[in-house]
Amino acid sequence: MSTLKTNAGADGCADSLVHPTQGNTPAPCTLGCAGGNDVRQWLGIVAQRTKLGLSDAQAYARAWGVIADTNPFPATLGRICPHPCETSCNREAKDGAVAINAMERFLGDWAIERHLPLRRLEGASGGASIGVVGAGPAGLSFAYQLARRGHRVAVYEQREHAGGMLHYGIPAFRLPKEILQAEIARIVALGVDLKLNVAVGRDVSVDELREQHDLLFLGIGAGNAARLGVPGEDGPGVVGGIEFLNAVNRGEGFETPSEVVVIGGGNTAIDAARAARRRGASVTLLYRRTREEMPAIASEVDEALAEGVSIEFLVAPTAIRRDAIGPNAVMVQRMTLGEPDESGRRRPVPVPGAPFAVPARLVIAAVSQTVDWGGLEPLESAVGKAQTENGAPDHHLWSGGDMLGLGIAGMAIAQGRHAAETVHAMLTGTEPPRAQRRAAAARDVAADFYPASPRAPLIERPVAERIAQPDLEVHETLSEQAFLQEADRCFSCGQCHGCQYCFMYCNGGGFVRIGQAEPGAYFALALERCLGCGKCIELCPTGYLSAAEAPN
Ligand SMILES: Cc1cc2nc3c(=O)[nH]c(=O)nc-3n(C[C@H](O)[C@H](O)[C@H](O)COP(=O)(O)OP(=O)(O)OC[C@H]3O[C@@H](n4cnc5c(N)ncnc54)[C@H](O)[C@@H]3O)c2cc1C
Predict the structure, then answer these.
(1) pTM as predicted
(2) 221 within ligand 1 shell (Cβ under 6 A)
(3) In the listed set 437, 458, 488, which residue is the last one of a domain according to the structure?
(4) Is the domain of 178 the same as that of 163?
(5) Based on the domain organization, do 136 and 91 belong to the same domain?
(6) How far apart are CA 224 and CA 366, in angstroms?
(7) Would residue 435 count as lying in a domain?
(8) Residue 199 counted as domain residue
(9) Based on the structure, what is the number of domains in the chain?
(10) Cβ of 133 below 6 Å from ligand 1
(11) Are residues 140 and 211 in the same domain?
């Protein structure tokens, strides 16, 4: 609890004097972001561009630069991120969260169209030789952060294209390959040596890499599809979700029969089901819990349903039934939900009764994924033992991304970045960046100050078009007008956005305009002139001003 400065009756202004302090508390969107992106900062640059003296283009380029500081994939994540930043947005309770994810996509596309380069950091002082295994988002994020700090980075990727699951897992109707590859090309243009078609452990040994590089980063993902563990699973006609999507993404003529059953409830299951629908199949997805527990992105589930995927909840496979041609049905058991398990979700338990048949000529098992250690076995125990949140006590071996536990792309990018920042600090004898502080609570923001303004709807292409053109992107990028309207909806929680109320209503002249304004820095305090009325704190809509604690 803060102790307010009090001086009853002074200046006839108030019974107890209250002096303001400027806060800059982190915004909930920023803290909600899995990638640690400073959402409020880049939104503020766009929303406040006129006050900051920026043209639209200057504001967009600066805002994009803020995103790219932590995430070199704005156009990519602007399409696929489940955007926890929006779930945290204080505007949600008023008239819908700011469409942060769609705005990120707008800026990402804008930058690609204008060939905006990623830049090295000023005074980049690194000089180490770094080897990265795996060109997924974790490995590329690590590579980017060290390359921009001046280190020499080589990335070894076993496949023909970089991008990991973003390229070979997520289908083009959600993430066009050219968007992802354009963002990867910018990382390579920083001087990263991307060695494609090189499998570490097969084409080059770990020992060779250890000799060539000062340290290694592993970002090998989780590329093995987990098995169902039911009779009849082995044999043709049963494939893993990522195998099926890999084939689709490689443009292979994977034969898709008319009846397909997908098993699982995550993004891989939903993507596989939607890809199979686009290949003309009638698709049933089986999930052992209810819609509420489904880990897949909720809007993707809605889109799958709209596209004609049928979902059976509370069922689990017990066997794959086969005939002379291949599988002809998945035998399933009805389930109910029991007590919560270690994940916190209620555990599915079988309902007494005989299994029943769901017809299937192709079964796609998308239940989970595990790490493929093939050729890298000597490192498995080292990573397992040594890994900490930001790397490893073995300072020559670091890791991040799905190999540490299945997650989302934003997390993989963040883990790559955190490891790189720690490595750079270690190599240069400097301090790694500090963790963020607590978020501004919703009560600190005066939601009524902001005019009502409904959230811009995402434009979705009609279902018939999507099914007819399998690679057609489902959503369109926001128009510039919608993008700017969304920027205006930002509350700027916890940070000054230059509304001037404090300045205008202060009778004593306790606020002084800053010559070179920045988001969050429009007025300096002149406390020697503060009358202590506290009006500025009362009026500040963002929660940036609060009562100063009295000196002890
Ligand atoms: C179908 C699907 C849909 C998804 N949808 C979303 C979504 O909508 N939103 C979201 O945020 N996340 C989504 N994800 C999750 C996201 O893709 C992953 O969290 C992310 O890609 C993990 O990044 P990573 O770099 O750790 O691993 P990966 O992306 O798997 O990359 C690992 C890379 O390492 C390479 N590699 C492995 N072993 C070797 C070796 N020995 N030598 C050289 N190279 C090697 C692999 O070829 C691969 O390129 C989805 C995942 C899947 C599978």
Answers:
(1) 0.93
(2) yes
(3) 488
(4) yes
(5) no
(6) 11
(7) no
(8) yes
(9) 4
(10) yes
(11) yes
Can you give the three-state secondary structure of 136-188, one letter per residue?
CHHHHHHHHHHHCCCCEEEEECCCCCCCCHHHHCCCCCCCCHHHHHHHHHHHH
Confidence of residue 421 (pLDDT cuts 50, 70, 90): very high
What SS3 state is found at 349?
A: strand
Q: Which of 165, 166, 170 to mutate to test the pocket of ligand 1 (most atoms within 8 A of CB)?
A: 165
Whether the Cβ atoms of residue 172 and residue 201 lie closer than 8 Å to each other: no
**Which two tokens mark 400?**
């991040």
Confidence of residue 3 (pLDDT cuts 50, 70, 90): very low
Q: What spacing in Å lies between the alpha carbon of 409 and ligand 1's midpoint?
A: 8
Q: Per-residue pLDDT tens for 174-207?
A: 999 999 999 999 999 999 999 999 999 999 999 9
Answer yes or no: do 274 and 331 share one domain. yes
Q: Domain residues for 375? A: 129-223+371-428
- How many angstroms separate the CA atoms of 384 and 41, rounded? 37
121 in a structural domain: no
Q: What digits encode the pLDDT tens for the residues 149-178? A: 999 999 999 999 999 999 999 999 999 999
**C-beta 86 within 6 A of ligand 1:** no
159 lines ligand 1 (CB under 6 A): yes
Q: Whose CA is nearest to atom 20 of ligand 1?
A: 409
What per-residue confidence (pLDDT) applies to 393?
52
Ligand 1, atom nearest to 416 Cα: 25
Mean pLDDT of 260-285: 97
Same domain, 238 and 199: no
Q: Please name the residue whose Cα sits nearest to atom 14 of ligand 1.
A: 408
Going by alpha carbons, the residue nearest to atom 2 of ligand 1 is 268
pLDDT of residue 10: 43
Closest ligand 1 atom number to CA of residue 403: 26
CA-to-CA dists, residue 232 to 312, 315, 319, 322, angstroms = 21, 18, 6, 7
Report whether pLDDT(398) > 70: yes
Claim to verify: residue 18 and residue 32 sit in the same structural domain: no
